[in-house]
Amino acid sequence: MPIESLVPAYTLPAENRRVILKNRPAGIPQPTDFALDESAVPQPADLELLVRNIYLSVDPAQRGWAVGGANYIPAAPLGGPMAALAVGVIVKSRHQDFREGSFVYGWFGWQDYAVVGPEKVLTRIGIPRVKLSAYAGILGINGITAYLALQMFGRLTQHETVLVTTAAGAVGSTVGQLVRSAGCRAIGLTGSDDKVARCTGRFGYDAAYNYRTADIAAVLADIGAIDVFFDSIGGDVLDLALRQMNVGGRIIQCGTASIASWTPPPLGLRNEREVLTRRLSWHGFVIFDHTGKFDEAVRSLEAKIIAGDLVYDEDIEIGMDEAASAIERIYRGENQGKKLMFIG
Amino acid sequence: MPIESLVPAYTLPAENRRVILKNRPAGIPQPTDFALDESAVPQPADLELLVRNIYLSVDPAQRGWAVGGANYIPAAPLGGPMAALAVGVIVKSRHQDFREGSFVYGWFGWQDYAVVGPEKVLTRIGIPRVKLSAYAGILGINGITAYLALQMFGRLTQHETVLVTTAAGAVGSTVGQLVRSAGCRAIGLTGSDDKVARCTGRFGYDAAYNYRTADIAAVLADIGAIDVFFDSIGGDVLDLALRQMNVGGRIIQCGTASIASWTPPPLGLRNEREVLTRRLSWHGFVIFDHTGKFDEAVRSLEAKIIAGDLVYDEDIEIGMDEAASAIERIYRGENQGKKLMFIG
Asked: CB contact, 8 Å: A280 with chain B?
């Protein structure tokens, strides 16, 4: 059956537009680090798939993939499409396990088409049970990070206090709701008054604070001892939060977004005495270590969405024309929900 | 039965000599922070014990107990005997669970006699199976720390590499031997060439280095990725070691001895990116959280000592005349093995 009849809604462009990584940035990637190009649509070899991307994901973690150096995945290659996650549809399959017309989520890069082996597929969506875009956000690495990191390292018991940075973001907005549904208190830190309102009004937070305007030291002293710190930013806020942790507290380190550059390594307060005297357990969490648990997480989160127990916001722009500034823009906190580029 | 017939070897002094904590030090306690005094032997009330101390323990952790502030036990009170662990014999018991003439290890302070409730007893030695002094060191918090911290947070599998600071010390010398017996590679850092020789010749270390003379950055780059870092010193060595950890590595923070004062908190390299990208688990370990496991640990370590599979060194001085400088001296690394004062 020709692919057009399987996915009639999708135009299949004749060329492959790509957002090329030109330079290896020192910190947050800038527009000058990227270039747009166009080339022929690649063709899959035996055991490969041709994926037509529909939603391209924009993630803070792309900073690290672009910068390279010691990190958890190999650096995004220069001269190729920027390493990125995407939701797409299989338009040609030369692998018996993958059906044409089936939706997938994985490492497909910032481009119209990707030729990939099956190892690049993170989730086989098949037929979407909720909106397709959700599979690139709350049902992608963002929501799955919230779900698995809490499950593996949060070890929540009722009535505990959980502090969350980037609380209105794609990960944090899910964390808040999962924390509340576990019978715990969620406290959010986020970057605007509007986001504060969404945290408490929409994402399950008992309280939230704007770290651009609030006195975070005073806020943290006020909220009482923190049992779990779900942190994606590091830096001064981390140093302050460590000094308010409860004995036996858990810190889940999911990112270090507040630090603009790690070269040279910046200085901060020494934290080993806090780890010791408060008997903290401080865990680094990288979602790609846990791909074997993605299906379970997606099924669980899908069920909550369908039941109306889990909401999410998206900030979708059309096309990839503005991709070169997209990472920089999410570091400035301009997005209102999970940032995606719709190119289908 | 009169106590003299039960423990004929021990002279029972008529007065209680005490090493009083006079001032709250900012960092490592100095001789001027203590005073010796003498007072009447106290008498136990109902449900209390009178313990005649035999071995007084000198521990790096006493620094924190003297300094006070946020810590894991209440600050040692000013004007009272310095908070300390000791091995003693019960000379009067007004508690039915404790027999006179029985040996005990616990929070008895730097003094000849302690009147304590049963909650101050950490280990009921009863009749010693090995030398009595061992129960204040390798069978006290030092050896038990090595045993339980490795068991709870080391999660060793064969052929892993374990880096240990203060490797020739009362904790580290036990860690090395336990690591080797688990089929893993133990690398020690210690403060003199003589201690290096004892680490490799006596305490199971595959290699050891003098951190006063070796280029630790080069050493760490050389030994390969570290799976477990058993750290009692913190500071620059910690920062270096974190940058050589294997993915999934574990850090056991048992002390921060290299930092002379925490007021104000000193600066160091920011470490959250290492925690994240290397997926570390960094645990604070305070032995007093695990008193429920002491008996199991003591039985296991006793068996190894009796079998000749576990050795230890002691550095015992007679009397408590030099107690005022004892903590400072162990921070200078002058002791050759577990530091005790014999006053029996």
From this structure: yes
The CATH number of domain A152-288, selected from 3.40.50.970, 3.40.50.920, 3.40.50.300, 3.40.50.720: 3.40.50.720
B7, pLDDT greater than 60:
no
CATH 3.90.180.10 for domain A3-137+312-342, yes or no, is yes
Q: Is residue B246 within 8 angstroms of chain A, CB to CB?
A: no
CA distance B66 to chain A (A): 14
Closest C-alpha to A228, from A253, A203, A211, A199: A253
| CATH architecture group of domain B148-288 | 3-Layer(aba) Sandwich (3.40)
Residue of chain B whose Cα is closest to the Cα of A244: B70
Q: What residues of A are in contact with residue B68 (Cβ under 8 Å)?
A: none
Interface size, chain A vs chain B, as Cβ–Cβ contacts under 8 Å = 121
CA A252 – CA A320 distance, rounded (Å)? 33
Residue B259 near residue B266 (C-beta atoms within 8 A): yes
Q: Which of A61, A305, A7, A8 is nearest to A178 (CA)?
A: A305
Specify whether the CB–CB gap between A171 and A254 falls below 8 A: yes
Q: What DSSP line would sit under A216-240, residue for residue?
A: HHHHHHHH--EEEEEESS-HHHHHH
Residue of chain B whose alpha carbon sits nearest to that of A74: B277
* Interior angle at CA A149, CA A143 and CA A150, nearest 5: 95
Shortest CB distance from B270 goes to which of A265, A278, A281?
A265
- In this complex, is the C-beta atom of B282 within 8 Å of any C-beta atom belonging to chain A? yes
User: Can you give the pTM of this predicted structure?
Assistant: 0.90
Which runs of E-coded beta strand occur in chain A? 15-21, 34-40, 49-57, 85-93, 103-107, 113-116, 121-126, 161-164, 185-190, 207-210, 226-231, 245-253, 267-269, 281-284, 314-318, 338-342
Those of residues 288-317 in B touching chain A at CB distance below 8 A are 289
> Which residue has better confidence, A6 or B77?
B77
> Looking at the partner chain, which of B265, B272, B282 has a beta carbon nearest the beta carbon of A238?
B272
Residues of B in contact with A265 (CB under 8 A): 269-270, 273
Taking only the tens place, the pLDDT of each residue in B207-262 is 999 999 999 999 999 999 999 999 999 999 999 999 999 999 999 999 998 998 88
Partner-chain contact A234 B270, CB within 8 Å: yes
Partners of B152 on chain A (C-beta within 8 Å) are: none
For residues A89-104, average pLDDT: 96
User: Residue B240's closest CA among B306, B313, B152, B163?
Assistant: B163
The helix or strand, by DSSP H or E, that contains position B85, with its residue range, turns out to be: strand B85-93
Amino acid B9: pLDDT: 56
Query: Cβ–Cβ of B283/A280 closer than 8 Å?
Result: yes
Query: DSSP strand E in A120-205: where?
Result: 121-126, 161-164, 185-190
pLDDT at A108 over 90: yes
Q: Is A287 helix (H, G, I), strand (E, B) or coil?
A: helix
